[in-house]
Amino acid sequence: MLYYLYTLADYAEGPFSAILKGFNVFQYITFRAVAAGVTAFLLSLLFGNWVIRHLISLKLGQPIRSQEEVHRLHELHGSKAGTPTMGGVLLLGALLISVFLWARPTNPLVWLALFSVIYLGALGFIDDYLKVTKKSSDGISSRLKFGLQCVLAAMITAFFVWDPALKAHASQLYVPFFKEPIIQSLGIFTFFLYLFVIVGASNAVNLTDGLDGLAAGCTATVAFGFAVLTYAAGNIKIAQYLQIPFVPFSGELAVVCVALVGASLGFLWWNCHPARVFMGDTGSLAIGGLLGVVAISAKQELLLALIGGVFVLEAGSVILQVASFKTTGKRIFKMSPLHHHFELSGWKESTVIVRFWILSVIFALLGLATLKLR
Q1: How far from chain centre, in Å, is Cα 53?
Q2: How high is the pLDDT of residue 214?
Q3: Please, how many CA atoms are within 13 Å of residue 169, restricted to the half-sphere of its CB?
């Protein structure tokens, strides 16, 4: 909403002309993106204690797997029982308020991104609430959760396919290192691509959220990478120079991405080891879905797999573990997701977290490097 303050520059006359001219910066995406990131970070810091106290008072403690499920993991994480979960409300609240304040309110992709955050955040909130009330690791059934994620993917697909300004690129498939789309029209398979990206990203971040600060730290690096990509995709001169698709309205998503960076770092202040609060499915499902929608909006769906490499490794380890056990009766990893494998291999939790953060930075840099390799 603060975007419109730039109009004050039109009244730059008299003794306050220099000050009024300064309001012109509010029309620039770069300025508002930085402001959004700082705002989200400060909101997380200011309201963190308040949110944590209320979660504790509501007795919304995280249930930990029983010893019967996995004895060694219970030894490592048993002390975390009772730590308040559903802390995603802090992260998402800071993100939403910041975007409302700093993003251009007439941009349809911004509202699409916010709708996805609210939709998946509500789904995750219900899932977390059921886990806490049941005092179990079981929440919403996987079928129902997947079905509701499919509904969101269908709505996102319909939005892009039917929007006059966006449908030109909606069904195209771009691959890193190629200047032109390798498929001009996916047709009905557009829905399946979007479904794969949104549901895959949402669940991958959810699986990564298993150690203190792991998901939040990785989210910050991935969101920063897509802040650069969306800004480039929304600027016709930069898009032409880098030979990437120019997508109308996508530049404003840089404000959303940097706000996510700030909100993630602010949440990390409270979530770093030893965590005072967990984000839960409330945060992780929404974050992953948002990153998926942003990747689709910038027409960099496949690049999300590289920039979000840590999320892919975590989800991939679960898929491989299940497939191997069902086909051979043997496990590839000591436990999945991958971070638990390294824990059970003797790595300290803080070591796993920091090394995965390092990998996330490397993946983000590699993803951005592909912009010049076309």
Answers
A1: 25
A2: 96
A3: 21
